[in-house]
Design a protein that fits this description.
By secondary structure, the chain is an alpha/beta fold. The chain has helices at about 5-15, 15-25, 30-45, 50-55, 75-90, 105-115, 135-140, 165-175, 195-210, 225-235, 250-260, 295-310; strands at about 65-70, 95-100, 120-125, 145-150, 160, 185, 220, 245, 270-275, 290-295, 320-325, 325-330. The chain is globular and about 65 Å long. Pfam families: LacI, Peripla_BP_3.
């Protein structure tokens, strides 16, 4: 079967080969919509540049690719450190890419890492990733791949996650035991595992304490501070605002925190606030933020260890490791 080329992509999409080339290299002059169409078609037909395809038949580099939604998030920077620690001791280096929470950029990163002949990939998917054909393509080409934190359950690879359900359950249970009864949830995306599992923990804790889920108190969003700001503003517009808020992660909680302070509301007297992650800034705000701690460095380390185990074993069977969380109660609740 003939190899799919840039000219083939251009012909199918009705654009020039130069536009295809620039789209594949994330050129700023090419629109996001065009980039998305090009990347999706390239992934569908397993396109690889000719010289890279030849290189892939030979040995791979001693480089590990790491793809995360954003490097500035303390959780991901800590996880990257965990991956690097294992890689360094094994004589490998790491190449870090960030998707900026965009599926199209994530796909470009994966393709670039494959093109650079990385030995393996550690990835945490973006909030927008609903199509994982780019990850499937990497696996089909024999690239060992391990997912962590945010994972695609349908993709048959090793995974490292925390017990998001029970972490969220413990946090909401704490709020209920503290006397809060109208508890809102600033949720993540439902198709992202951590968003779904943390919502389920929230829902189950309420139900086990005899409280139905009030859909008006569940605000879906993303995983960044501006999502917390927007969600908190919506909650404060309700006729009966919440007396406590459980945020899907600490950045979202910090965004909500900022809105509460701007409105002159007292934490926790007017509204209690609980996060998830235990970022350093959660202990530095006033009052300090209660949160559910997840072991970011250990997750990165475990993901890298699974990757190297796959290097060493011919008939490796994908494994899933679930790490425990820990509730940290501070003055915000």
């Amino acid at each position: 079967m003939a190899q799919f080329t840039i000219k083939d992509i251009a012909r199918k999409l009705g654009i020039s080969p130069s536009t295809v080339s620039r789209a594949l290299h994330d050129h700023p002059d090419i629109s996001d919509e065009t980039k998305k169409r090009v990347v999706e078609l390239a992934a569908k037909h397993n396109y690889q540049p000719n010289q890279i395809a030849k290189s892939l038949q030979n040995s791979r580099t001693s480089t590990i690719g790491v793809v995360v939604p954003e490097i500035e998030h303390h959780f991901f920077s800590s996880a990257i450190s965990g991956v690097e620690e294992v890689a360094y001791k094994a004589g490998y280096t790491i190449m870090v890419c960030q998707s900026q929470e965009q599926m199209v950029r994530e796909a470009m990163n994966i393709r670039a890492l494959v093109a650079h002949r990385v030995a393996g990939i550690v990835v945490s998917v973006s909030r927008d990733t609903t199509d994982f054909s780019h990850l499937e393509a990497a696996v089909r080409q024999g690239i060992p791949l391990v997912q962590f934190d945010r994972v695609i359950e349908e993709l048959d690879t090793s995974k490292v996650v925390v017990d998001d359900f029970n972490g969220a359950y413990a946090g909401v249970h704490h709020l209920l035991e503290a006397g809060y009864t109208r508890i809102a949830h600033l949720a993540g995306r439902e198709h992202v595992t951590i968003g779904r599992e943390r919502f389920e923990g929230y829902r189950q804790a309420l139900q086990d304490h005899g409280f139905p889920v009030d859909e008006r108190l569940v605000i879906p969003g993303g995983f960044q501070e501006h999502d917390g700001e927007q969600g908190m503003k919506r909650l404060l517009e309700l006729d009966s605002p919440p007396d406590a808020v459980f945020a899907v992660n600490d950045p979202v909680a910090i965004g909500a925190y900022r809105v509460l302070r701007e409105r002159g509301l007292r934490i926790p007297r007017d509204v209690a606030l609980l996060g998830f992650c235990n970022n350093p800034e959660s202990a530095l705000v006033e009052p300090p933020l209660s949160t559910v701690a997840q072991p970011a460095w250990q997750m990165g380390k475990a993901a890298a260890q699974l990757l190297f185990r796959q290097f060493e074993q011919k008939n490796f069977t994908p494994q899933t490791q679930v790490l425990r969380t820990r509730l940290i109660v501070r003055q915000s609740t």
